[in-house]
Prior knowledge:
The two termini are 22 Å apart. The chain is globular. It is built from 7 helices and 2 strands, in the order αααααααββ. It has helices at residues 2-13, 17-36, 38-59, 72-89, 96-108, 112-127, 133-155; strands at residues 158-161, 168-171. A two-stranded antiparallel ribbon has the order 1-2. It has 174 residues and is mainly alpha-helical.
Amino acid sequence: GILGLILLFHFWFGMSSSILSPVLDALSYALGFRFLGKEFLKTSIFATICMAGFFRLWELFPPVLPSLADYPLLAGGCFIGTGCGLVVRQGASCAGDDALALVISKVTGCRISRAYLLTDVSVLVLSLSYIPAGRIVYSLITVTVSSFMIDFIQNFGIPRKDEDNGKETAADNG
C-alpha cells in the first residue's frame, strides 16, 4: 500500500519518507473526500487521531503481550486485517491505504478485500526491483491474510442477499 510506495520512492528516487508519507496520505484522503464525502473525512480524521493516541499510550508501557515475532505471517495478517476491518466497517480510514482501497471499491464495485489486495500486490510487484523475491513471498502471504480478514470483519453479521433465492442471510464468512 502507501507504506510500500513510500519505501519504493525512497529507494529509487531518494525521496524523504517524512515528506512522502503525509503527501501520499493527504492525496488518498482527498480522493476519499471526493468519492466518499464529508462524513468519510470527518470519521477518518477521528480514526487517525485515535490511532496516534493509542500508539502513544502503548509506548508508555513495557510490552504486555507475548512476542509474536516467531509468527509474523499469521499475527501480522490477522492483526492488520482486524484493525483495518474495524475502521472500514465504519466507512472510515486511519491511513492512506484504507482511503485508497475504499475509493477503489466504491468506484469499481469490487469487494474491499480485492481493492486492498490490488494495491498491495501492485506495490509488491514493483518492489521486486529492489527486494529479493523470497522476502516478497512473506509479504504477499501477509497481505493476502489481512485482505481476507478485512473483508470478514467488515461484513460479519451484516445481512446480504442469497444469490440463489434472493432472501437475506447473515454474512458470517465475508
